[in-house]
Design goal:
Elements lengths: L20 E5 L2 E5 L6 E9 L7 E6 L3 E5 L6 E9 L2 E2 L6 E3 L3
Antiparallel strand pairs: 1-2, 2-5, 3-4, 3-6, 6-7, 6-8
């Protein structure tokens, strides 16, 4: 018999949300993404550079978010799922420049 100690594997990290899109408007960017099974919410993050680093700007249970009061510059966004196993990896980033 083996005297080794069995350990549980850590929970699998959720995959990133899919279908993230960004629609620029007047001083705002509206984001939409697909709902993810098992998600209790989503973290929305923004950067001024594609690839990050990204700062958390909102946590929401919805599958859309409007980032308002923006200057005329290009912003890059990612979304991560929040669920029972913590936060997922970030989605692909999308960029938009408000009017």
């Amino acid at each position: 018999m083996s005297g080794g100690v069995q350990t549980e594997a850590p929970p699998a990290q959720a995959s990133a949300p899919s279908g993230l899109s960004a629609k620029p408007g007047h001083n705002q960017v509206t984001l939409n993404w697909n709902a993810s099974a098992g998600a209790s919410g989503y973290n929305v993050k923004r950067s001024s550079t594609s690839g990050g680093p990204y700062a958390l700007i909102a946590s929401t249970a919805a599958t859309s978010y409007s980032d308002e009061g923006l200057a005329s510059a290009t912003y890059y966004y990612v979304v991560a799922i929040v669920g029972f196993s913590g936060e997922s990896v970030n989605s692909i980033d999308v960029g938009a420049t408000p009017a």
